[in-house]
Amino acid sequence: MDRTAVLRHRVIPFLLVKDHGLVKTNRFADPKYVGDPINAIRIFNEKEVDELALLDISATPEQRGPNFGLVRDVASECFMPLAYGGGVRNLEDAKGLFSLGVEKVVLRSAAMTDLQVVTAIADYAGASSVTVSVDVKKPRIGRHQLFGPGTPAHGISDWTGFIRRVIDAGAGEIVLNSVDRDGTMSGLDEHLIALAAEVTTVPLVAVGGVGSLDHIRAGVQAGADAVGAGSFFVFYGPRRAVLITYPSYADLTALLGVE
Q1: Is 143 helix (H, G, I), strand (E, B) or coil?
Q2: Total domains present in the chain
Q3: Residues belonging to the active site
């Protein structure tokens, strides 16, 4: 198979780390240890994955910046473009990450607190180096809500407005996280993706719920430019045995086509 051909849509492993360990969450809660992130990255290298996202979920709760030591170790082993999120508070944090080989920084808390952080990093490194993560959840009653540090307990209803504002501020990519589907492997929230695609003028990465190749196809058909997954790439079988895997290039070509 000719690997010089480019897939029409990216399929990105999203790895979560906590206390230096690789973990997986369920609806953004109850993180379970699943292994060593370095070993996982080595396997993804062998699988010739095109891009990888690493998110430190303990940085913001612990009110600290990025774990530069971990990032240095990861970047030295990672043979593919690396996106990193977790504790990126300002331009200086981003500069430190770029100096270690990170290609994109993923912002959430900083973007919700001060859009100038988005602008400063985009001005320094270019919009393509700034990704904003948008975490959305649907209450039992009502419409989807934006959740994150500083939001009310019930969330913020104008989540599409937030997407517009971060793009205007300089974000070059949006990661749309469905909190309700995280870790469930029950399928992406296609309705949520379609709503986001209507207002997003930069690449849209849909995350949360992937459990099969059909789910990836459905996410793209709903409007996502790329699809990210965690559980699908680290668990195998009904008992969720830990097994790092990734679809073959032939399978992805058949699923998504090439340019």
Answers
A1: coil
A2: 1
A3: 135
